[in-house]
Amino acid sequence: MLIALAFAVPPLAESQVSGANSTEPNAGRSEVIKLEQQWKEAYLQADARVLRSILSDDYLGIDSLGKVTNKEQELKRFKPANGYNFAAIESDEVQVRGYAKTLVVTGCSMVKLRHADQYLIAKFRYTHVYVRQMGRWQIVAAQLTQVSE
User: Fold this and answer.
1) Are 6 and 145 in contact (CB under 8 A)?
2) Which of 13, 49, 53 has the alpha carbon at shortest distance from 33?
């Protein structure tokens, strides 16, 4: 069964950060790690305010079914749809790679959705592209692909 999700966001630990090709290898990584955790918590707690601050105004996302969304569309999709909400998000294989004023986060997430007393679990690979603009890191692009077990 395919389900459309915008993103699966991991909790990150410093030990999970890796990367190369950056003029400043650690620049911004700790901040992006915190933002990834805030993103995850925003989905689990249905907090659109936090998500709004993390997404850039020109954000472009591609969900697990290939649908393209902008920031406002993503915020509308963020609300629990058809009675589904996020029950858990667990991630592994997380990497952060730096390229000057851009950081790319990739990983694999197991997402558990709740609908009434039933649960749906799916696995995804994702990419989040952060750019430092106006003095802070924001996600400018993201892509999610559902993978089979």
Assistant:
1) no
2) 13
User: What is the pTM for the complete model shown?
Assistant: 0.79
Question: Where do runs of H (alpha helix) occur along 4-104?
Answer: 29-45, 48-54, 71-78
Cα dihedral 51, 52, 58, 63 sign: positive
Starting at the earlier edge strand, list the strands of the sheet with 68-70: 68-70, 55-62, 136-147, 118-133, 102-115, 84-99
Q: Give residue-wise pLDDT tens across range 38-58.
A: 998 988 888 889 999 999 999
- CATH assignment, 18-147: 3.10.450.50
Residues 6+ apart with CB under 8 A from 61: 6, 7, 68, 69, 70, 74, 141, 142, 143, 144
d(C-alpha 79, C-alpha 53), whole Å: 16
pLDDT digit string, tens, across residues 80-125: 666 778 889 988 898 999 988 899 999 999 999 888 888 989 999 9
| Confidence (pLDDT) at 24 | 55
Domain ranges of the chain: 18-147
Element containing residue 28 per DSSP (H, E): none
